Amino acid sequence: MKKVAIKFLLLIGAFPTFAQIENGGFENWETLSNGAEKPIGWSSNNILSTTIDLPLSQLSFIKDPTPYSGSYAVTLKNTLEEKQNEDIVTYYATYGNLFLGNFEVKEYKLPGQAINEVPTTITGYYKFSQGAPLKSDIYDTATVEVVLAKWNPTTEIFDRLVTRKLQIFEANTEYAKFTIDLDYSGDAMPDKLSIFLSTAPHSHSGFNGTSLTIDELSYNTVTSLSLPISNLYSSKAYPNPATTEINFKDLPEESRSIIVKDLSGRVVKTLLLISDNINIGTSDLNSGMYLYTVMGSEQNVLYTGKFDIKK
User: Fold this and answer.
1) Do 118 and 256 belong to one domain?
2) pLDDT tens, residue by residue, 269-308
3) Is the residue at 36 inside a domain?
4) Considering the domain boundaries, does residue 3 fall inside one?
5) Structural contact between residues 30 and 47, judged by C-beta atoms closer than 8 angstroms
6) Which one, of 17, 126, 147, lies nearest residue 67 by Cα?
7) Domain residues for 54?
8) Using an 8 Å Cβ cutoff, are 171 and 212 in contact?
């Protein structure tokens, strides 16, 4: 009866599904070496903008105890830093920024979260405080930038498939919902979602007092006739969470391989299939969430899912 109901839904059209952005509600934080706290799964290239630890009041983002929902949100803010060399005092202004995933300054690769589906919209809630003087010719524009990308093994970089931006410059003291339509209709299946938050444009360092608060980020997907029916079935990976091994049962008949990635998008296992049941040892995998994709004989996606490892 369950499969009949699913086929009926396919005949009458598409329907949206909800998916999770890693720590998109900013509930989980970790403590850095200087005592500051950073949202887990997110990073910034100006956590420490000098060779000395900044006072916590001058960090470009903070754990905000006034969320839209839950316990915390994140607030990015422009900072003014003072450095003194003998009798000379220099001020450095820095705009707040935050990336989904890991940001490596020395070896830049597109930061973000691994995905095995096509997001259609990004939603969230924001507040914004404008620090520019009333009669200023320029002002701060906060940005929420979203990128869908796909790894190119030939060039060893991520090819950007679509880039969308939400720009905010009007003050809003109460939480307001935003939706970013990604409008992606290409043939390539994206495997990375990148999100970049900032309080000011790159053209200047920002005005003191500008801040952007973000909470409850998520994305939606739409399942339609163009997707395999097997994408609608419940996960076939068990036990979930797993400890020593993960089993796959009753895979689609045309399955040829399984690709397993961690949340950074790195491929950690690739297995060729010789039956519709297979088990994978997890002794060489760390605890955490993993995404898997079942591929067909023509390298087409047959099935996607996720599993957790807890040791």
Assistant:
1) no
2) 888 887 777 888 888 898 888 888 887 776 666 777 778 8
3) yes
4) no
5) no
6) 126
7) 18-223
8) no
